[in-house]
Amino acid sequence: MVRKIQLSHLLDKWVILIFLLMIIFGWFNVYGASYGFHQTNFWSFEYRSGKQLIWIACAFVIGGVILLLDGKYYEQLAYIFYAAVLVLLAITIVVAPNIKGSHSWLVFGPVSFQPAELAKLATALALAKYISHPGFSLSKRQDVWWVFGIILTPFVLIVLQAETGSALVFMAFFLMLYREGLPGILLLIVSILIVLFLIVLPLSEVPIYGNVGSLGFLIALSIIFLIEIGAVVAYERDWKTARYFLLGGILLFGIGLLLQMSYDVLFNQIALILVILSSLYLIFLFIYKRKRAYIWIALFAIGATVVSFSGDYFFDHVLEQHQRTRIEVVLGMKNDPQGVGYNVNQSKIAIGSGGFWGKGFLQGTQTKLKYVPEQDTDFIFCTVGEEHGFVGSLGVLLLYALLLFRLIYIAESHRDTFLRVYTYSIVSIMLFHVLINVGMVLGLTPVIGIPLPFFSYGGSSLWSFTVMLFILLRLDVSQKMRFR
Amino acid sequence: MINDKLQNRKFVIGGLIVLVVFIYAIRLLSLQVFTSSYKVLADDNAFYKRILFPSRGLIYDRYGKLLVYNRPAYDIMVTMKEISNLDTTDFCNTVGITKEWFVQRMNDIKDRHINQGYSPYTPQVFITQVLPDDYARLMEKLFHFPGFTVQRRSVRDYAYDVAAHTLGSIGEVSRTTIENDPYYKPGDYVGISGVEKSYESVLRGEKGVQILLRDSRGRIKGSYDDGKYDQQPVTGKDITLSLDVELQMLGEKLMQGKRGSIVAIEPSTGQILAMVSAPSYDPKLMVGRQRSQLFQQLNTDPERPLLDRSIMGRYPPGSTFKAANALILQQEGITTKDTRVACHGGYFVGHFKVGCHIHPSPLDLEGAIAYSCNTYFCTEFRAMLDSKKFKNIEQSFNAWRKDILTFGFGQKLGIDLPNENSGFIPTTKTYNREHGRRRWTSLNIVSDAIGQGEIIATPLQIANLCALVANRGYWITPHIVRSIEDGNIDPRYLVKHVPPIDKWYYNNVVEGMRQSVIYGTSRIASFGDSIVVCGKTGTSQNPPHKDHSIFMGFAPMNHPKIAIMCIVENSGFGATYAAPIASLMMEFYLTRKISPARQGLETTMENTFLIPNYGSKNSIVAPAR
Ligand SMILES: [Zn+2]
């Protein structure tokens, strides 16, 4: 009795409130998305909205059970659980039937279940436990190998199930590792390279005004050149070298403009010459001044340039046609409403037609008439956009932001490493899901089939996120009880 | 220390969350608030506008007899995705098609190059306009063939097998029409000839629309908002023609086996009473599945049954034109009632010769009209052209031409039917080109006096001249539609056109035409003693072929009720065929019967076949219905 009163008293009200709001609003959207014209009995369990009610009820039961268990079990059982899940994943590869090309679902009669969902939780717990060992440090090579191993083993197993989308979620753990001390520069460099890749690909065929070169390469090389200058300024804390660079840049482009009158000058080539000359100068400075920083900056510039060009090469010569078209569509390179981009195009139409206030509950024609594929699972955000408009969509995004901020607050409010690592893992996973899922629906990120937490139809995903969240709540309560 | 430093990274992670929300919010804003095209795209996606076709207006004759009405036709439709366990042999037998045709047709339907709007989920046309017998048989067994349904559409049917040219037909709308008028969509039916074409906007009504919701695979999911935005179709308006269908039937009977035309006008109103063009065809041939094949057959028929000779035929008006010239010559002060000209078998100047037949000589104006004396009109016409009144021949010719145009020659009269021909009245340019500038004399163009030479007129224009004479001074643009349901006919069909000829000059022409019937060339045209008939024969020379026989006339002489023109191609002198046919028409129109004394004449005319080895109407035998 006392325990229960304490529990409900110590539970984080904000998280509970946001969780309930999401579950309820999510159900209404599943209801809206699966609502048909000849459907009269909406409560019938034959329909998805009815089924989702059962999943939600189960989720509450599961959440309750988790709260009643002692928080210390999760830490104690983390490795065993992790190992068990790895075995399960391995078994799944062999046993699972082929469903839409992937072998990731275990089917028990009417119930099917995706072990990959459990793997996220297991990995989060295992990482939390490993990192919370006293003496752990990311500067120790051995620790780094272990951490990478814990992340990559389930990743590889899930890729082997041909569920690349779910596997990619494991990349989210690197955000948690950043909080735990992974050098920020690694994160930054990787992000920059991805951005360069994304700029060059869609724009490499786009000519600069007047047809004087490729816009994509010009932008990419200009960014590299500016980063070079920035890095030099940051290192020298002086504009002396940077001034030469800028002067050289203006001079080269000026000559280019003059020559333009009588010769065909490609401006992206001028930018390339600029990057090469500046890198050579930096190598000269390294030899002359014996300062390592120069060679790093030069190597970054050269590496980034190679990535930019290799992106184009890789795209044209390494990728297979279907992979190419998929990337092309995502990057807006081809306007092809009936082809691969059909899903994204229809989803943009559905969201765009919602307007500011939306069409109203159950009034969305696009989702109701099944123009949007997977409209109650991966594309559930379409229904939000169509029926509840900009207001509803932004509301949902803000709700997620609020939840994640609250979780970060909880993580940082205790001095417990296990709780912090676990919570940041959950934050990273959820952020990744929202980023990819909503981005895909908005036509900004690749079409990767991962669900929107608490919104998408389906038991596996709902339960998995509920379990993650309630374990976190339970750990929070335990911490609060310990320091009372 | 280190831990505290790392703790600051929560701000980086928090900032990342804010950044994601911010970027996505901007994307949402641009999709939902600043782009409006998605709403249109969404509507195009979801709303299926089913067109509700109005029933087309009916067509009646001047006495209220129904001529054209609608009858249902049945198209067999196929929905590919709903076909299951089809017994192809049974189906083909039921519908009356071969298995090869079935396979070919199914492939054509699925081929998006041929059938652009193909969807396996929506009904596609399999066969159009199934015969009623096949339809009845199919309806009994339709439930055996899932995927096949029947769609009702409305086609035209005809109560009489006459007036095909005038009534016209409907057919699938052409690409050009669709491009010019957004009302029409591919597959719509539209008037393509005759009244159906010229009164298309009246007859068609207005299409309605039913807004249905359609899912991503084209399946209909129900009505949108309980049909709140649906529009009911507006039925087309009925029209009443001025045509007398019984007169028309008589006319077509009399003209069977011949080439030519009859145009009968009520002079006081300009309403057309009958309009015959022979050879002709049964309007029912232009309906149904056999249409394109029969059309092709008629189109290649050497006697050109599809040509409406009454408004498109180009003929020299011959001696009927003398009536027009008599009016001008009097008005110009050249000829008076008592002007006499001697004629000895023709008009001779040097080597130039226009023949004339035997008649008393000399003749005055009335006599010259009655006996159709060529010499008289050639002499007087030249007198006008060479008159001292005018500076030169160009001036005198232009004066004549100006007058003749006011009678409606040389231009389209403006009948409410498509494709009217304008005929031709030569200009000074014509002669300058032919003879050299000012190098032509009155003698060069003297055949204009007797309606030969370069002068070309349509039967309608000649009938209109007759109406002008009958009215003694005005004509109203001939038209075929008498009234429109809930509407008015075009006001231009109420305007009297008055040529600049003094009224009493007409009396001399009327008197000449009267005498022509009493003792002149038109004697055969007289019937009964109670009705006074006026007429004028003509022979339209058509070298090297045989002359056309022409007659124009009106009756009764005072307060005329009918003005008529008849031309029978290559049949010789006007009195042979054209005059008797026209007079039978007038008799029937005025008395509603043919007197027993003239029934023999009627039979003779009816049974005269001038086109060798040819059907009564055209080269094809109409299929049994
Ligand atoms: Zn004579």
Topology of helices and strands:
The complex is a heterodimer of chains A (484) and B (625).
Chain A: H1 2-10, H2 13-34, H3 48-68, H4 72-95, E1 106-108, E2 111-113, H5 115-131, H6 141-160, H7 164-168, H8 173-179, H9 184-203, H10 215-236, H11 240-260, H12 267-289, H13 292-318, H14 321-330, H15 342-352, H16 365-368, H17 380-413, H18 417-441, H19 459-482
Antiparallel strand pairs in A: 1-2
Chain B: H1 2-7, H2 9-33, H3 37-46, E1 47-52, E2 59-60, E3 66-78, H4 88-95, H5 99-110, E4 124-130, H6 132-141, E5 148-158, H7 164-167, E6 170-172, H8 175-180, E7 189-191, H9 194-198, H10 200-203, E8 208-214, E9 220-223, E10 239-241, H11 245-254, E11 260-266, E12 271-278, H12 291-299, H13 309-312, H14 321-331, E13 346-349, E14 352-355, H15 365-370, H16 374-385, H17 393-406, H18 428-435, H19 459-471, E15 475-476, E16 481-484, E17 496-497, H20 503-518, E18 534-542, E19 545-555, E20 562-568, H21 578-591, H22 599-606
The structure holds zinc ion.
Bound compounds, each kind once, are:
zinc ion
The residue fraction in helices of chain B comes out at 25-40%
Distance between the termini of chain B: 105 Å
| Spatial shape of chain A | globular
Q: In one word, what is the shape of chain B?
A: elongated
Strand content of chain B: 15-25%
CATH topology of the domain at 245-286 and 306-606 in chain B: Beta-lactamase
Mean pLDDT of chain B: 87
CATH superfamily of the domain at 245-286 and 306-606 in chain B: DD-peptidase/beta-lactamase superfamily
Can you count the helices of chain A? 19
| Class inferred from helices and paired strands of chain A | mainly alpha
Judging by the overall fold, what is the CATH architecture of the domain at 245-286 and 306-606 in chain B? 3-Layer(aba) Sandwich
The first-level CATH class of the domain at 245-286 and 306-606 in chain B is given as Alpha Beta
Name the quaternary structure. heterodimer
Largest sheet of chain A: 2 strands, antiparallel
Structural class of chain B: alpha+beta
Separate helix tally of chain B: 22
Report the helical percentage of chain A.
Answer: over 70%
